[in-house]
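Progress report, Aim 2. The chain analyzed during this reporting quarter is listed below.
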Amino acid sequence: MNNGQARAYLRTLVLAAALGVPVAFAAVLYETALHDVIHLVWDEVPDAFGWDRPAWWYVILVPAAAGLLVAAAVRLPGHGGHAPLEGLGVEPVRPEHLPSILTAALASLGAGLVLGPEAPLIALGLGLGLLAVRLVGADETSGRLLALAGAFAAISTLFGGPLVAAFLLLELAAASGKIPAQTLGRALLPGFVAAGTGALVFTGVAGWPGLHQGSLALPPLPGYDSVRVADLVGCAILAGVVAAVVVAFRHLAHAVAAQRFLRPTPLLVVTGLLVGTLAVAFRAAADRPVDLVLFSGQSELPAVVAEGSAGVLVLVVAAKGLAWSFSLGGGFRGGPVFPALTLGAAVCVAVADLDIGVRTTPAVVAGIAAAWAATLRAPFSGALIAALLVGSSAAVTTPIAVLAAAVGWLVATALPNPEDRTVGAVEDAAPVASG
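Predicted structure tokens for the chain:
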């Protein structure tokens, strides 16, 4: 960098740091709105009818009604944003497209469709980042980096900090090969800084305690003090199974999206009906709440890990996996990652519950790492998030997380995949790399 480029880059870093806090606030507001919609639809309305649990017809009709709302939202400018079947997208998002994107996702996730909040949060960060670019009049190169920085800050709210989000985007950029290795850090550092300052929204500053926003978490797991050979072997096998399960359900999602019998709006309604029907059938068969099938699985993951019946967990995998496929292929909006993590955990906890030699804690680590790696083709961040989620056992279970993520990635990339791709924001960051 010459002196002019260095000054421009420093200004970009300062702007990214300033951007992180308002984007994190906006992300928290959106997550709060989503929580309130879920509470209204699935708690307050059933309570008003005097139900101790939602009626079967209500569970079926709510996702179908969401299909109509999503169909209306995708007609707005922006067309509902990135389709989750294509992975995680971080293409530039115009601020004027955010109403369509956020409304479509709010209708999908609030009605219980099996998708995660990561995609609308990324879109929110990208859109607000571009809005900031317009306000400060940044040049093209700085503008691209600032827009990406907004995505960093927004997605980090799901993980309680910047490390997993930044590591994921760093990994995707490195894997793409579109940014020279020697400039990779310089290209993504503004986003990392924005995610770091955005984390102040949760940690607080001085006497302000910060906001308390729920993030992905596991219940306390059994202590795990030493890695056993049986766990290494068992978890490697389980990781391969999880990856195969994830790929199979995504194949089904592509088949649903490729069908020629229904136009987009009827497809949304029909797949919504199918998702609701799966939840009702699961409740009747397993005598468990429909929540274990509906929603992203972010809030339900503790219940999955604590479930003591292998048979119930097998039903969770079957019902939630099918519902995930219909949600992905039907045209609903949201992210593909969190349901996959729930499926991975359910598969591995089911095996641990059989008491055939694999312990629960390493099994959960393996399931999450493999599912993340198979869904996003990102084994490094998959190992990181799996290790971090187990808290005090992180140091001991890290080798298992790494092994499971590697196996999950290998199996997923070896199997035929129908255009299963994750889009990184590498091309837009490339101009700074050559500077």
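Residues 420-435 have pLDDT under 50 and may be disordered. Residues 9 and 234 are 48 Å apart (CA to CA). These observations will guide the mutagenesis work planned for the next reporting period.
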